[in-house]
Amino acid sequence: MAQWNNGSFSPNPTSYSSISNRTISLLSRNVLLLLLAFFVLLGVFIIPWTGSPLFPFPNRSSSSPSSSSSSLPSNWHDYSLAQAAKFVAKDGTVIVCAVSYPFLPFLNNWLISVSRQKHQDKVLVIAEDYATLYKVNEKWPGHSVLIPPALDSKTAQNFGSKGFFNFTSRRPQHLLQILELGYNVMYNDVDMVWLQDPFQYLEGSHDAYFTDDRTTIKPWNHSHDLPPPDRNGVTYICSCTIFLRPTNGAKLLMKTWIDELQAGSKAYEGNDQPAFNWALNKTAHQVDLYLLSQAAFPTGGLYFKNETWVKETKGKHAIIHNNYIIGYDNKMKRFHDFGLWLVDDYALESPLGKLE
Ligand SMILES: *[C@@H]1O[C@H](CO)[C@@H](O)[C@H](O)[C@H]1NC(C)=O
Ligand SMILES: *[C@@H]1O[C@H](CO)[C@@H](O)[C@H](O)[C@H]1NC(C)=O
Ligand SMILES: *[C@@H]1O[C@H](CO)[C@@H](O)[C@H](O)[C@H]1NC(C)=O
Ligand SMILES: *[C@@H]1O[C@H](CO)[C@@H](O)[C@H](O)[C@H]1NC(C)=O
């Protein structure tokens, strides 16, 4: 049977055509002729603007960049961030993640959970390599963009490696570009699972919203200000979940983060998070910052390690982050162990469907 995903494109072109054939056999010749005329008009007037969000279904045939055959040249290569953001944005908001090919299973897992909260349509996958760009756009046309330069697909993106640094250091640049285009942007790492709609927690109209990566338990009514630095003079804000409005304040924060990364790239040893914390520290008096609730956005160092706390805060969790663990297989196993590895049983809830 054909599998259709709520409010999104069919992940599978064959299911599309089987439905069309059956439908056509039920139609009278007159209706068919009308339809034909309609499609000719559509072809003449609409196809040149298939990148527009006004046209909900991308043209899957001749001129489309769909990579139905991998041997054919594809023009997803020329898909710009501006086109892609315009295509996916809803209510002026884009949800982005950045993914390299080895992380597609995590992307799919995260997407299932995003789809359950009905926010998948605004997801834009920033592909770190061409294999990811083509794979995602083949399954889900228009939802992936590559901002050059691309990484080598084969490079495993291990935390702490130089490759990982190159990968994460591009994050503030991509976010700044989306802000400059005028969109709100929600950034997520893909080793996450949504249990509730995180947008309900974006109270007020602050410039930037973020989460604390410290495991220390806070009272449920903790302050939403930037936390004070610890004994070592540092904060541990996570660079993993960030929501920004297209304000001067949010842009200044991203620019300062880029400056900090460039100034201290050696000291940060492949991690963009300390630079983000220094950027928050330096701009705290100019930028309207908002710390999200710990119960809703717990660090993995708390959620996966303190069962008592998880029980006490039951029903309050919005996004679970599978951090405070090293290694791809360990991460996957932990999601399995906690019932958060959704792709084995629920892949069809993802707009990407099953990845084989
Ligand atoms: C990191 O990026 C620099 C400059 O873009 C490049 O020369 C270098 O080869 C990259 N390193 C890795 C490990 O990807
Ligand atoms: C949180 O609640 C406690 C007791 O209910 C109160 O004493 C404290 O001042 C509150 N803290 C904040 C930041 O509102
Ligand atoms: C910034 O960091 C310095 C050094 O740790 C600290 O003294 C200062 O209070 C921080 N400022 C803010 C706004 O957190
Ligand atoms: C775990 O959570 C409970 C309940 O919040 C807390 O009392 C306890 O101190 C926490 N344990 C650790 C090791 O942080």
UniProtKB/TrEMBL annotation:
Coiled coil start-end: none
Keyword Calcium: no
EC category: transferase
Protein keywords: Cell wall biogenesis/degradation, Glycosyltransferase, Golgi apparatus, Membrane, Signal-anchor, Transferase, Transmembrane, Transmembrane helix
Transmembrane segments: 31-51
EC nos: 2.4.2.-
UniProt topology in membrane: Single-pass type II membrane protein
Residue ranges constituting the Nucleotide-diphospho-sugar transferase domain according to the UniProt record: 119-335
InterPro entries: Nucl-diP-sugar_transferase, Nucleotide-diphossugar_trans, UDP-D-xylose:L-fucose_XylT
GO molecular function: UDP-xylosyltransferase activity
Subcellular location as annotated: Golgi apparatus membrane
GO biological process: one example: rhamnogalacturonan II biosynthetic process
GO cellular component, one term: Golgi membrane
Signal peptide positions on this chain: none
Sequence similarity: Belongs to the glycosyltransferase 77 family.
Protein name: Glycosyltransferase
